[in-house]
Specification:
By secondary structure, this protein is mainly alpha-helical. 63% of the residues lie in helices and 4% in strands. Keywords: Membrane, Transmembrane, Transmembrane helix.
């Protein structure tokens, strides 16, 4: 059976507002359910070790495990399925929504689990904090502490996924695989190549940010960029600089230099790398006197604010149809500037609101008295982000679209 797709709301702004509301509701309801399920499972698996530690240590372990399930199953898998593999195979069983989306979601979640078992489990053969037995079923208080560090470091493999695997699509257009081999093998090539870079960056920047190595009582590592918030602030600036031109920016400003790959990709990445330091420094000057988080490091403010702008950029692209379109503004350069202004202004407003309200939201830092783990200022924004990304890519904007059955006719049916 074939289906034609019709939008329920023709106005992109109306459709976008409704989609945003739906995503917000899903985040408010979905996160408590997800976190309670994760807590129940890991509390049983790790019951022996958890019974031997203080409640604060047990809660931190459960929080990191809960965060890990979300990062690996939802965020990482979405990047792999949608961006790298282009949603390959989504309609292999049915084109009917939401059935196709539900099936694809299940496959994505499963791939996230497998990805963690393969990437982290392999390292865990030699590194005890990453040993799957230690991470999932610690038997002593010492193992609980080791597992907590392992989960924290493993969870933030998601950031190398964002800063290393998205650019191979957003900046390089899957070069050199796109157009050379047919799907899904172009995605496979991009996946393997970008995974190498992601693992290198993970070991270079993120593992040292969490694991506490010592030799003879002396710290054996130097934390990258000085502090963890500094790393996150730079990463968010870098992500926005290479990502926005690939979504609402129509390739600007980098395409003004060249459209040829891999030169375009290299220029995009290099300029984004350099400009991320400049923008982070500029934002420090502007935001530090404001003390928006009551004494928290200014880099944490920058991380949260720029992440809100990135969230807005993705929301505008996926649910607001990159308004204004060509029907409203003919010049692509003008469209880029208008969308950039919209995203930065709305994103800044959203970011300021988020910093003042996240402690009250069930997907921010409010457990609603249910005792589930919350992810707070930074990770909490991803809980809102993923529903609208999944709505657009896995579910084709369902339920904001309707599928109408199209009868298919054979040549004999059309014969007179």
């Amino acid at each position: 059976m074939e289906y034609s797709v019709e939008r329920r709301f023709k106005n992109p702004l109306v459709s976008g507002v409704i989609a945003t509301t739906i995503a917000f509701v899903i985040a408010c309801i979905g996160w408590p359910i997800w976190a309670l399920i994760a807590k129940s499972i890991i509390s049983n698996l790790a019951s022996v070790g958890l019974s031997q530690v203080e409640p604060a240590a047990a809660n931190q372990y459960i929080k990191d495990v809960t965060e890990g399930t979300f990062f690996w199953m939802s965020i990482n898998s979405w990047v792999w399925f949608t961006l790298i593999f282009g949603n390959y195979g989504k309609y292999s069983k049915t084109k009917k929504q939401p059935i196709a989306g539900l099936r694809y979601t299940a496959l994505a979640f499963l791939s996230g689990i497998i990805g963690m078992i393969v990437l982290v489990g392999l390292i865990g053969i030699w590194w005890k904090p990453f040993n799957l037995s230690t991470m999932l079923m610690p038997k002593t208080a010492e193992e609980v502490l080791l597992a907590t560090e392992g989960w924290a470091a493993a969870n933030f493999y998601a950031v190398p996924v964002l800063i290393c695997q998205i650019p191979i699509v957003a900046a390089f257009g899957k070069w050199p695989f796109a157009g050379k081999v047919a799907p899904p093998w172009d995605g496979f090539g991009a996946m393997m190549t970008s995974t190498v870079f992601a693992l290198i960056v993970w070991f270079a920047m993120f593992v040292p940010s969490f694991l506490k190595f010592q030799l003879g009582g002396q710290t054996a590592v130097i934390q990258p960029m000085g502090t963890w918030p500094s790393v996150l602030a730079w990463c968010q600036c870098f992500i926005f600089l290479f990502l926005f031109p690939a979504i609402g920016g129509e390739g600007y400003p980098y395409k003004l230099i060249t459209e040829k790959q891999p030169t375009k990709g290299l220029i995009t990445v290099i300029l984004s790398l350099v400009l991320a330091f400049i923008i982070r420094g500029f934002l420090r000057i502007i935001l530090e006197p404001m003390d928006l988080l009551n004494g928290q490091p200014v880099d944490l403010v920058i991380t949260s604010l720029v992440l809100s702008i990135i969230t807005t950029a993705l929301l505008w692209h996926h649910q607001f149809f990159d308004f204004p379109g060509e029907d409203k503004v003919k010049s692509s350069g003008t469209r880029f500037l208008i969308r950039l202004a919209i995203v930065v202004i709305l994103g800044t407003i959203l970011g300021l609101i988020w910093m003042k309200t996240y402690t009250k939201l069930p997907f921010g830092s409010n457990s609603m008295g249910l005792g589930y783990s919350t992810l707070g200022l930074i990770a909490g924004q991803f809980i809102f982000m993923m529903p609208f990304l999944y709505m657009n890519t896995f579910y084709d904007k369902w339920p904001l679209i309707k599928q109408v059955k199209v009868e298919s006719f054979s040549k004999d049916d059309l014969a007179v």
